[in-house]
Structure prediction request, 1476 residues.
Amino acid sequence: MLIMLTIGILANALLAQEHPNLILTKAGVEKIKAELGKVPLFDATVSATKAEVDAEIALGIHTPIPKDYSGGYTHERHKRNFLILQKAGVLFQILDDEKYAIYVRDMLFQYEAMYKDLPIHPQQRSYARGKLFWQCLNDSNWLVYVSQAYDCIYDWLPPKERKKLEKNLFRPFADFISIKNPQFFNRVHNHSTWGNAAVGMIGLVMNDEELIQRALYGIKNDGLEIDAKDNDGGFIKLPGQKPGFLSNIDEPFSPDGYFTEGPYYQRYAMYPFLIFAEGLHNVKPEYKIFEHKDSVLLKSVNTLLNLSDPDGEFFSLNDAQKGMSYYSRELVTAVDIAYYFGGNNPQLLSIAEKQGSVLLDDSGLAVALGVRDGKAQPFIKKSINLSDGADGKQGGVGILRYGTEDLTLVFKYAAQGLSHGHYDKLSFSLFEKGDEVIQDYGLARFVNIEQKGGGNYLKENTTWAKQTIAHNTIVQNETSHFNGEYEIGSKYHSELYFYDASNIEVQVVSAKEKNAYPGTEMHRTMAIIKDENFEKPFVLDILKVNSSNPNQYDLPLYFIGQVLQVNFDYESPLTLDTLGKENGYQHLYLEGKGSPTRDNTQFSWLDNGRFYTYTSATKKSDELLFTRIGANDPEFNLRREAALMIRRKNTGNTVFASVIEPHGSYSTVSEFAVNSNSSILNLKVVHDDAEYTAVAVKDVNGGECLMIISNIDSSKTSTHKLKIGDRDYQWSGPYYFK
Amino acid sequence: MLIMLTIGILANALLAQEHPNLILTKAGVEKIKAELGKVPLFDATVSATKAEVDAEIALGIHTPIPKDYSGGYTHERHKRNFLILQKAGVLFQILDDEKYAIYVRDMLFQYEAMYKDLPIHPQQRSYARGKLFWQCLNDSNWLVYVSQAYDCIYDWLPPKERKKLEKNLFRPFADFISIKNPQFFNRVHNHSTWGNAAVGMIGLVMNDEELIQRALYGIKNDGLEIDAKDNDGGFIKLPGQKPGFLSNIDEPFSPDGYFTEGPYYQRYAMYPFLIFAEGLHNVKPEYKIFEHKDSVLLKSVNTLLNLSDPDGEFFSLNDAQKGMSYYSRELVTAVDIAYYFGGNNPQLLSIAEKQGSVLLDDSGLAVALGVRDGKAQPFIKKSINLSDGADGKQGGVGILRYGTEDLTLVFKYAAQGLSHGHYDKLSFSLFEKGDEVIQDYGLARFVNIEQKGGGNYLKENTTWAKQTIAHNTIVQNETSHFNGEYEIGSKYHSELYFYDASNIEVQVVSAKEKNAYPGTEMHRTMAIIKDENFEKPFVLDILKVNSSNPNQYDLPLYFIGQVLQVNFDYESPLTLDTLGKENGYQHLYLEGKGSPTRDNTQFSWLDNGRFYTYTSATKKSDELLFTRIGANDPEFNLRREAALMIRRKNTGNTVFASVIEPHGSYSTVSEFAVNSNSSILNLKVVHDDAEYTAVAVKDVNGGECLMIISNIDSSKTSTHKLKIGDRDYQWSGPYYFK
Prediction:
């Protein structure tokens, strides 16, 4: 037994010394070479990669002294270097052309010569400054890619040169981003995931068990204080939290594969998660990394794809730059690895086809072969409810979809989402096909655009984008949820009340939030309903607020498009003033102020050749505010976009009931306006008490539908009885709809 | 001789009595029937048309009592009726299915029963109210289409029924829109073109020579007062102007085929121009209508196609709704007729392919056959200079294009453009590929969207869209050109100084305006330049203003996108106030106010993944204003878009010299920012006197280019000498560039 184990370890050690073995493998390279020229998608990627790398080789090697923030020359140059190094390494392996190995070697030795005397990066904004870059995060990016390049030329390099590189560059580099920066390395955070992967991957190539263990389990005695924070306000260490790569899988991913920071950061983190996992799988299969936590890494790829609109763009949840999509390089990695290591789901092939490129490794080859052989099937996105939290018990995100993504509702009742979280409990966004109808603002940042604050987070991200008023949810007394305090927000999460998408014509998600405002309970139920008297599906929104104290409630609707018509009177100020002084209100101009003239407020707008009407059961005493983003924004960091806001003052318990109704179309070519008017005659809260809330919608075709929510019993089997007016209703389950 | 002529006339009369003969012809129908099922584009149109008409037949015939403005039910219903009638008539002819004839007949008799007692339309906004619609214009639309339907069932109807229709419906209808409304019919205006075509087409079908003559030459004694105006402020009758269809060709079209109202209205007018011309060609070939005025009708189709961006969208010149394009039904007509009657230009076939449908007549068949037989060639748009005015001597529009429409500059130095004209002498707009970079605002109207002022012109069209400050040109002392007075503006036009696109790397257009502000002369030269030290072509703009009096000059730049960076200091007001009180200034908020800190002002922005920088040789005493549209706009009729404005006070003679420089790219997927900084180091007016103005541009790569404009001699052959600093320059022609 002991002998076998010893032999096993020795065999393993010997195998581990045969390179490449990290992402490319000896056997894989042989297979790739045998298929070259026969697999269109793979060949296209090889030839695009070759063109890119050859062009860079022609430009010569440049390793400037680090100086700039992202967007600046030295940052972008070093970033480009690591991306090209990785590609050059791969090309050396699969094309057998030594010029690529020479290029990698020469650049590595330039780094080697530079690194030992390199001071900490001169830019001081980060809580963990790197050497090549202004933050350890980017240094880690560098090492994740460069480890792969090194692996590719490892066997080709004389041992003496390897030794020199490892001694002067790789080992000190790995130590710098880990033991020299535990506040960076030892967190549960996407930063640390990159750090862990970087240290682990170079450890795998160098066969350095100490680095591998450090990567997987973190630094033992990191000396970090509990509750310390980084420059974005995120916690560095929380009580009881374990560091290392495995914890970074365990903690932020829910059992459903939802990453608590949201899809924008999940996308960013996917690369180190999956590429290190692939390396670990290849070099240390005994860790069974892809099976870890019920295969959550592979599951999370499917989850992430489901967190996108029909154009493949990720929903803006928390800090997220709009336009990021599954066309990104990280998702090429994710899709290929999920396909290859996750059971060859043919639906992933259709995404790969759209991406138009693959990884140049075994997984990419498998995908390209699958596509070539016609195995691709459409990736079908349905309604889905995703739990948040390591145990899946910290709220979640509900996505309701109608048809082939004709209408998509994204309802957020999640946890804080670490330092990139926004204070927007029970908020939502809405899409018709690939277009935003009701938007989530996203982040206030122009990633990598130097002119805008070095491409980093702008201060408006804190003063505007994270604040509750920047979202489509309730703001009480002009203060953000949890008073906008991360420490408090991080302690709580909303709670799912029920989710039921079993009937495609009536899909409902309902959640409660009890902690955003102490003493106030919010209960929001959102449904996508397709009624035969309506041309298109609509969204019914019932937001019940309970509070023993009188408050002011603001409910904004960040519509995209041009105002067409309202059914209320309002005054338009001659000069524009801000709506408030703080908590995001200082960034809003008040463009109009009125109050309802009927018991229903209607507001219609036009966007992208489609009409929309918002109908809300308002009270005479409500204020209706037209707002526009852009006040106190001297550098034009914010987009000048609008909202209609319902303000209800001096109120304890109340219900906001409304419908968002897409209808008709307009073409600037035919100039036909089709079905430009709402089909809603009246929307009314017909019943509301502690137990039940009921909303009736009458349409212009004489129909009426009624939604009753059971407020305190969400059991599927409980039966309910309610008399509304002179009619008796009886049903089982958390809601009644007819 | 006399006998032959008589026989000829008789034969003609007899032939004319064989129907269809207007748009469809007996012979054409036979040919169509023979080809059915063999010509994909034609067949696709037949089947789409059949589906549409069959669906309408199933809904039954509805001819409601007229009541609404455009966008409203009765308007849209009657509009739909005439469109469907025309199609049903054609289907009867080519499919031989009597149900279509019955549908046409039955609906015509419903109109016949209704028309005789029909009062004038109840909506009172128009200077010429119709009966079915709120304006005679739409009634004329109806008759243009319905004449075709009537022609198709003419031979099928018993003579008695024809007589009844003609007596009670068509003749009174034609008389109402002509002799009862001479203020509508007898103008030179797109309204009258529709009226003329309507009367002429029903005249051709009925073989009613009186109506045909009235259509071609107008009403003899119309009793109209000279200088009377319509409800849009357009002149109804000018001294010496002749009425009728032929005058409506002669007057608004320049010899180059430019229509003085601009492409949006040219598109609208094309249908009656061409469809009546086709009818006249078929029934009265002796008029040689397609050869009239050097074949200007056919030529104008090519001109109109050239007035579009790479997406086929027409440039916004004067009143124009953005998004209108060559995909419109009017352009299907125009392209097919121009192809068939204008010498089978194979480039038109590629436009027809994109349009995806054809006319269901001889011309459409010819196009569909050409496409089927692979004859289509790409429609190549090059730089083009288009004269304005009946004689081509009233200014014009210069369009400079680089590459395959990579960059397109639209420079307007035209006449007023009738009642749809804007007060924007020497203004411009700029496109990169199909995207607006520097925009012309267009009109303030939501065509056919009832919720917005009945779909008609909004008052902001006058108070904002037409005003000079809404355009990218000079405003003197905060008043519009010609004081915004149509009577004055109509008397003048700008004058081409020179146009030279012979060198693709240096394309120049230059024009002068002497009347917009009495005592002030403006001379603007705009060039597209491709310099090897710049990644992309840029626009050089030299605007020389001469005035003996000190004035305030405002030069706005309506950029599209997000502000990135400026190189000057400015203050941002806490509350937004309007920039002025009138002439469009009341619609602008002042978002920032500063002044140059260097002799060059630089301003960069980002749009649609591309970077742009504006560099201008400003003076320390200039004011730099960030403005935003939207003040005094209580109904949100205007788009909240921005400008940077250079304000130069208390100045007589001056030069505004600047460069608009597209560069680089940004992707929200890769998050790479490429070439995000301007390549311009310095831009300087190095010489300026009455004779010459010279501007030098130094770039960051050490290059320098120099443009010298000869201000008073635009001859191509004159030779010039100028000493700038210690260098002597010698050249011939209106400009020097190196």
